[in-house]
């Protein structure tokens, strides 16, 4: 996508076109928010396939392997699709949670709350149709949508949302450094030194926000990439492990199985069965 921001409505014709297309698993170089007003969405993401019935919102972070199949329900479908570059509204809480939590889709149970999201989408579309769109207005409307979604999530999952109160610049910096270095065989001390702090304090921050240690977050990021490579390449288990900083195939396999509940080979077999359905 070359544009900074794009919004459109997906109707029955577009849904049928997607269903009839090859529609392979893919990645985006942009962020995507799908707001389902009518119909259903069959969504393969986070290495799981589930079907959601409107009303719902589903967020797909850039770089995530996924596949969406819009489905008509009672011969009707109406989705708002919003696509934007990450720099359009940087450091959103959704980006953080999309990378480390398997909760990209949220059902809505209060029609009044959901209807306001639709109004905001209509306002953004109207602004984008102007001869010269004011991106500051669009950015504000999009930020409001995310705020409202987070408000609804807090109501549905109050305990989990306590983590958001503890977000910090340090943690954001840690994630940025991790993204550049997770393939290297570096441990907690490496990241702590990069942030000019002790390993203990970095662990405290990570535990506060994600309830995971630094080591666990590093392994989580490695696991996500391992799954991506198992899904999208023909590289051997040893090659993938080595690429992610594991010198021994057996050790990589043990770590993967401990976190994923199956060996890399078993995961590759199961995921290939899933996407061929």
UniProtKB/TrEMBL annotation:
Record PROSITE patterns: HTH_ARAC_FAMILY_1, HTH_ARAC_FAMILY_2
Organism (species): Sphingobacterium puteale
Residues of the HTH araC/xylS-type domain: 172-270
SUPFAM superfamilies to which the protein is assigned, alphabetical: Homeodomain-like
Protein name, UniProt field: AraC family transcriptional regulator
GO MF entries: DNA-binding transcription factor activity; sequence-specific DNA binding
Gene3D superfamilies, per the entry: Homeodomain-like (1.10.10.60)
Keyword tags: DNA-binding, Transcription, Transcription regulation
Keyword DNA-binding part of the UniProt annotation: yes
Keyword rRNA processing: no
Pfam families: HTH_18 (PF12833)
